[in-house]
Amino acid sequence: MGENMGNQPRHSGATAAADLVHDGCGRRLSDGEFDRYSRQMIVPGMGKEGQLRLINSRLLIIGAGGLGCPAGQYIAGAGVGTIGIVDSDVVETSNLHRQVGHATARIGMKKVDSLITHLRGLNPLPTYIPHPFHITSSNAADIISQYDLVMDCTDNPATRYLISDICVLLCKPLVSAASVQKSGQLIVLNCPPAPQGLVDGKYPPCYRCCFRKPPPAGSMISCGEAGIMGPVVGMMGVAQAGEAIKILASALHVPSQDSLERNLLQPTLLIYTYDLESAVGPYSFRALKMGGRKKNCFACGENSTLTLSGIKAGSPNYEQFCSVPTSSCKLPPEERITAAAYHEARERGEIPEHILIDTREKEHFSFGSIEGAVNVPFGKFLMRAAVLKRDGGSGSDILPTKPANVDAPIFVVCRRGLDSQEAVEKLKELGVDNGGRRKVIDIMGGMKAWKEEVDPTFPFI
Amino acid sequence: MTNSLEAPTIPITVDFSGGLEMLFDNQRRYAVSLPATDANGKPANISFLIDHLCRTLMKDPRADLFVLDRHIRPGILVLINDADWELEGEEAYEIQPRDNILFVSTLHGG
Ligand SMILES: [Zn+2]
């Protein structure tokens, strides 16, 4: 028990508290454990006590994707004794560049089973618990209550608010990370946890204290839409594992005067910005100082009415909280055409001379497009439209080509069929429809529909 | 608003991150000479800066991705010298020379 007490700073309060929480901290390590964990146990501050705390801990990873895979590898490697994983998805080929806990041979398998297969290969000693379904208002408390610490590796705001609220009510520390395209964020929340409503003095914030309101639904970009660089999300997942290991091994999550006084009182949001055009620079990583628990926080604040039974019964409604009603299509049917009908009309020679505008980003366009399509990325299109509106001038200046027939119809296609509708509206606003003589038509469902209805070999991304 | 050449300005840097740089010509850092006072002669604060950025720097017409009803839109954090603006007085914080103001949008992907 005492072999590495000498070279270690001790936090006697936390040690005592941890011993109360966990049984078995005084036991011997098996030979297998000793060999496997020796290199991390000799790190100053870690020791056998830290290792035993990890072995006696139960950790929940919610999301077995770009964050959960790299995080899971280090959590399993470090020997956290019980590891639960929640995810309802199956492995797809487009996951594999970043979701390194899966494998080509396991495409189509449930992600939780695939990741557990990988982790077990890495370290067979922990107990792995699959939860192969979505985390929802009705099951979240039952799952989270079985664990000591939660890692939020999910990909949407509604789930993030739900997980944080449950962690507040069940007094669980939460290590939260997110990443999209070329940016990543990480923050440790609710650690050490303090009961809801306790606001006098300094207590750590919850997710809602830091991010009071979600962004409007239309402004959010997902990894599927915006893309994601593997090492960026990987970096955030690994950092998440680092935080979780440190919290469990040092019992930073066990409420005590000692743990409150430590540096967790200075909540920090770490942001990582990855630039494809330059090497790592002084602003690639930034550590931002966040506030503590907020008196008026909806979840953890003074007059919070949030309860477990309320959440289970559907209040608050997380989906509603995170989504502003999406604008439904206002175009009349004669200004829209299905991808299949457009294709057939072309084949039959019914639309000889026309302009086909593709409003996807140029990276998407570069992988393939409909013959004759001209790329005008949506952002650029909107910008040009705004300039024309402001400075005046002929609306048709926005068109990429000038056909001889000034009434030649215009078709607009995008990725999934939303931007194209807006583009059609804008073109009409600019008078490009020549008072109705010229047709401006939206191709419904975008290139996704083109792949489904016309050309199954089309490289849609 | 006339005589802008003679009106005193405050030199600051403004950063955009988490995808917001897309609204500002894909440039992450701007050196800004902010007029020291607003139209009413009050010292320049964060509200005034946001207004100034919309008028002078924003290249993208989708202003509602940055401001809603003249306030910063939900889901954007404002950091004053790397500290959450709530620690500094939010929109009322009076800008000081050489301040760094960072706008970062909250991410949800994973
Ligand atoms: Zn809170």
Explain what this protein looks like in three dimensions.
Chain A: One of its GO terms (cellular component) is cytosol. Chain A: ATP binds at residues 66, 87, 94-98, 111, 155-156. Chain A has 461 residues and is an alpha/beta fold. Chain A has two domains: 57-321, NAD(P)-binding Rossmann-like Domain (Rossmann fold), CATH 3.40.50; 333-453, Oxidized Rhodanese, domain 1 (3-Layer(aba) Sandwich). Chain A has 18 helices and 13 strands. In chain A, the strands form two sheets. An eight-stranded mixed beta sheet of chain A has the order 3-2-1-4-5-6-7-8, with helices on both faces. In chain A, strands 9-13-12-10-11 form a five-stranded parallel beta sheet. In chain A, helix 7 links the parallel strand 4 (149-152) and strand 5. In chain A, helix 4 packs parallel to helix 5 (111-122), helix 4 (68-78) runs parallel beside helix 10 (230-249) and helix 16 (378-391) packs parallel to helix 17 (419-429). The longest helix of chain A is centred in the middle third of the chain and has 20 residues, at 230-249. Chain B is mostly beta strands and 110 residues long. The mean pLDDT of chain B is 89. At the A-B interface, strand 5, strand 6, strand 7, strand 8 and helix 16 of A face strand 5, strand 6 and strand 7 of B. The structure holds zinc ion (ZN). The site of zinc ion (ZN) has 9 residues of chain A, from helix 8. Zinc ion binds next to helix 8 of chain A.
